[in-house]
User: Fold these one by one.
Assistant:
Number 1:
Amino acid sequence: MKENKIEKTTKDEELGMDEENKISKTFDSTTEPGEKKLNIRNTEELPSIGINADNPNTKRKKMVSLVLAITPLIILAGMIYFLSSPYGQNLINTGVPLPEVSIEKVEFHENQVVAFIRNTGPEQVTISQADINDRIQSAAIEPSQVLSRLSEAKVIIPFFWNSAEPYEVGITTSDGTRFSKIIDAAAPAPVPNINQFAVFAMLGVFVGVIPVLIGLVWYPFLRKITRNQYNFFLSLTAGLLVFLGIDAFLESNEIAANNLAATFNGQLLIPVIIITTFLGLFYLSEYFSKRAESKISNEYDEESRHLGSQNHSLKSPEKSLSKTRLSSLSLTNPLSNDTIDQTQGEHEKKKKEEQLTRLMDKREIIRPLTLSLMVAIGIGLHNFGEGLAIGAAVLLGEIALSTFLIIGFTIHNTTEGLAIVAPLAKTGRLMIRRLILMGLIAGVPTIVGTWIGGFVYSPLASIIFLSVGAGAIFQVVYALVVFMTKSLRQTSKINNAESKKLGDKVVRSATGVLTSQETSPSTAIIAGFIVGLLIMYITGLLV
């Protein structure tokens, strides 16, 4: 009876559900063995789950969420419109806003003084007169006497001035408010020509490029030092960079306080740029280093698979079959088998082993090379800001070019090359081209900075680039600390292994504790960091 019922049901299925069986058969043919098969007969139950994009309830919920997101913006726009309307201004304005005009830069040309001003107040202002040393002078204002908020103008004052004398340039608005700027020593403004470009380029070369390249010459010496000495120089590099970062921060803060209008909030802009640069460079350095490591790891895995063909033959039965055929053919011809095994096989094996060794060396050198490159980029950004400051100081007459000044900058910046080569000291490679390239990355921006600072000085641009340099340097210090931590862990493992063997450099104290005759890593790190700070401070006194 059971068998008759089964036959009856199968006949009903064959008669009533031919189309569904065809669909299920075609679907089953596409599925891999072991995968879960989808029951086509139950697809009619899918709409009952409630996943439907055309459901009116979901559309209504989306509209409600969209309205809730836009409502605060509509309220804010309405409030701003009301406050800017005459009714809102009559309701709120109870006093007269004070004008504010900033004199950003003063240039001394032949028989004339040019002041660059900007309206940094809340309202429109009109410039009525200009004076030098409290004496009213005739002046031309370009493009207009009327300045809207944050607009700028150029005040040209015909005046016979004397070099190296102090002057006070004043600007008076239509309501009688006077704004002034004191120049300690008047100096002729650099004129953009070939000679002046050459002067600033030579200044950038002597201040930025040559000192960094001189510092790279320490690389052969660093390759022959011990592990603790290597930790000392890495820590010294961190001290140098920390000093440079603090110096860039203080210099940008000084420019923001003295030369930038309070409207721009320069002192708040500095930490924002530093943090943004730090996080951006951290992400980029990690991304590119991991990308390079993964690429080399993939190449290493491929080469190792070719070298060890046992696992590969298990995964591909066709290749294993071809190998068995080749082996059977080689049995029929033993002479060819000997020649293949002894000549080509050993030669290819050696080549693959050499390739694996090179890939391992590449993978080990990625982190130190990336760190040195980031040090070069950070120093380059700092030197660009330093070049801006030097060029602006020459333009504004704050410093005079002298041999002593150039010598001071050269000595001060020579240690920057040491900071670049220190992470590469234990890689075992010379890499002259890469070292020269990184030296140029660190030094050449000084030339560009002196050009921009000397010809088109902008306090805001100086603050931005100095802050970017500080953020880059602090990011490099963080990467250097991480690198040193990994190096110390490796050193501790090596020391523990050597202490178990009771080598020549390990002695037992009276208490029975094993001690090393070498300087401890912590002492070398602390000493190196302090020495790095002192070197930068002492050489900075020469500038």
Number 2:
Amino acid sequence: MSKLQSEVLREAISQINTEATTKKRKFTETVELQIGLKNYDPQKDKRFSGSVKLPHIPRPKMKVCMLGDAQHVEEAQKIGLEYMDVEGLKKLNKNKKLVKKLAKKFHAFLASEAVIKQIPRLLGPGLNKA
């Protein structure tokens, strides 16, 4: 394995960015970066974890819906997150049009542990196909 100069890395990243703007794709592309550490034995040393604060919000307009029990619905309501309880899910009654409309309205769903097992039974395969 060889060392990589920071200038070469910056040049490669800028080239990726320019090609991403000129060649429009119909899917989200990912870039993977692997870093090897010297004098680090993963068997002996514990794996480390950390977080990186991004300079901007990746999806500022991301819409999330909480599918939850009473406790999680209350928490979602406090922080201004849209939510649906089990009764609301039962009202959809596997109606494909309503489930598809719900799926298209949000980018992501969070579900309580108690509710997550009931979702396929309550909604059917509608969330997968939207």
Number 3:
Amino acid sequence: MVFLTTYVNYTMRSNMSIAIVSMVTAQKGRVFPECKEREMEATRLPGLTTTMQSNDTNITITTTERPELPNGLCYPALQCLIARWAPPSEKGKFVSCLMGNTLGTCITWPLVGAVTQAVGWGWGFHVISAQVLVYCVIFYFVAANSPEDHKWITEEEKNYIKESQGGNVSKKRATPPYKKMFTSMPFWILNILHFGNLWGLYLQITNAPKYIAEVVGFNLRDSGGLAAMPHLTRMFMGLAYGNIGDFCKKKGLPTKFIRKFFVIFSHIIPGILLIGIPFVECQPTIVVALLITSMGVNGAAVLTNLQNPQDLAPNFAGSIFGIISFIGGTTGFIVPAITGAFINHGNTIANWTWAWVIGGCMYISSGLIFILFGSTKQQEWNKKKEDDDA
């Protein structure tokens, strides 16, 4: 269910990035008359669950943005589920299921691209909305907050999970210790790591279809299909990295070593590859190969920024992830705004170069900071007040 939840979440987020290719007129930087909004402002809007084809700009923006408000709760909630359900030696597998978002992206791009070309961009949003409704029904009957609340799990499985967690995870509710959290250096280092990862990720999610379609020279259908390949690779590599991390854990490798070693793959290597994209110019095979490799090795994020909240404070992993995602999520509009500023005077490789270089540097610098100063030690404030009293 973790995998399916993140899949659906990103179908709603990613559809705008491919539909925008049809919604805007690149030469003038304006969208079609239905929207009457500036190009880069439309690009930064997250995916829709529904759309109203209206000539009222306020309606268009409202129906785009408001469905994203509950989406922001998804990943923090899943971090809470993982903390309660996952034995420490298997957290890599559980966290790797967050890569369902990647499948959501790589399916949405060609699907929405084909539907947009066939019957118009509005129908791309309706198709996504239909699959969200199906997911909601499945989740209602299958999911549970914890092993104790699940109807189908056996007592043996419950005991195994509880014993493996060693009393570090509590079901009791408590207010997160925000003061201690915000004065914790490991928390802020994780923030930096996550921010750098999302910068590079949003750069590729929001701008890769546009770059491939308008600069490299593929049409819309090619953009949807080829641009999905890096994300599909990221999903499979993420699932593989999760198992590799669990294997390393069972072999006795220190958690700190695992996190910092795999930052080389989740951040350093992708950053180098992004910097190289504009320098290969209009060679589609090489551009796609760089994107595929960059996204593939970035799948190691399941062992770094996506799993570090579980290291620092499993009882408050949801709160931690919610905060770092809020801060990192600002890249969702910062990246398109910066890209728009660079390509405002022409959609050329020269103007795109700085967007890719900055993205690569954000990857590399945030990774190096974590390697030097990051921590995997469980923080003292992970212990809830109720546990202290007991």
Number 4:
Amino acid sequence: SIFSDIPVEKGCPFGRRLPCDIYWHGVSFHDNEIFSGQVNKFPGMTEMVRKITLSRAVRTMQDLFPEEYNFYPRSWILPEEFPLFVAEVRMMKESDPAWKPAFIVKPDGGCQGDGIYLIKDPSDIRLAGNLQSRPAVVQEYICKPLLIDKLKFDIRLYVLLKSLEPLEIYIAKDGLSRFCTEPYQEPTLKNLHQVFMHLTNYSLNIHSGNFIHSDSVNTGSKRTFSSILYRLSSRGVDIKKVWSDIISLVIKTIVALTPELKVYYQSDIPTGKPGPTCFQILGFDILLMKNLKPMLLEVNANPSMRIEHEQELSPGVFENVPSPVDEEVKVAVIRDTLRLMDPYKKKKKDNLFPDIYMDSKQRFPSISVIPLSPGTITLYYRSQPSEPASEKKEQLSEGGSTDKLEHDSSKSPEASLPSPCLKQVFPKYAKQFNYLRLVERVAALFIRFLGVKGTMRLGPTGFRTFVRNCKLSNSNFSMATVDILYIDITRRWNSVGMDHKESGMCLQAFVEAFFCLAQKRCKSLPLHEQVATLIDFCEYQLATLDEKRLVCSRGIMERRPALITYQPDGLHLAPAHHAPLLNRMAAANKLAGYRSHRL
């Protein structure tokens, strides 16, 4: 494990009574109850990156922006969409008789390749077991991957989601390339079951007799991604374009996940109550097609951080052996994550990273590792003082080039160190992607009308209040129709077999209802413009309502005797009623461009 290399302080053999700066959970946010500091898991992340939930989130974005989200294979959710899967495949085969597809079935909660299999026809699914007890996603199989040494491979990239609000994303500049162990052939009925040919999962291929452990990062069945890029570059491939496409894929995927993550977040850490802040390292599994287009395979909430592998010394006797490839990539990811999350450095805007020493025993700052429960450790992180650092500006497409920290070598010990491996991609490129964040704004409306803090479901009263406050009902859309819409959509979403403890309308159901309302109001526009128009309209109405409430509240306060007449800090505050007025004016300006489309 990486954490075996971290210097552990022995001062707390029985645990700490005081809160820690960083809690490092093994599985999820709920591994332990914590009320302060920072935790390396977001609430809801494990649920959001499951095969079905991820597919739904990406599909919503595909409905809005089909061209922007074409990096995810065509998917169907089983068992609920099995009839649709059969019908669509039949229709596509009839329209193109030359189309010879293959499909890959992935259990919803599967990991490490467990339960994955390939099929050539939808009828083969019925032979594979009971889908009711184990839901799955079936995807169109990518038949033409990029090959290296005639082998199929995928890419594991490490992504740090540093913050949800504001959204902040970092990508590691190097990753792992994991190879199949049999030469690739396009799927046929004869080779469908050859997992070492078609599935790149390390946990599967390590059992192949052809698996090659190597001390070099450039050879073997697991290599660094940078070694693959170097090899492609020697062939004349535009590496900057490859990196640009990968960065775009990562940002767009997290944009798709963010709305519901915010719902989970407000449920577990309600606004105004004490609680930790969160960050998380995610593992993105990406496949490069033959034309170098990156395709998202899946996202892992708990990517392995092991830096060794098991070697069989004799039958049944295994030993952990260091893996130089894993160590080179993963140690840098953990080290720089701790640098970025250092709570003391957050107070210094220009200083992103604390001092790191060249001694291998001091690759990490001083950390106390405190066991709390199985699979969980607490990191008590003590930062070291350091000189301010600034990061060199980069272009989106610059790819695998490394940043250089600008230090005076005579003052900083970091001058001779490798540059940080984590590259900020958001908000750095926010201007290029902010237009995609429509569902996030819909989620903000959903959260506003939840009513009870900590809940994740919207009741019928909350939905009616949303419609009424946003002035969405009229003679053609009565409140009775609103109730019917709520009941129909909520019932459909609650019947898909998902395990929910609460009753009411989930975020996905609210988004569907919102899309229906948008289509009713702006019939002549593309869906994303319909949704944007309705969002602007709702935000304008709510800003107006907030202003009225604040004016009324201010009037009441003015009639009361002043309790505080002196401000010792000398702050000069603008009148409070100006703020909502400015918000309303901004919303009105947004809305002006769409007035011709309103009913």
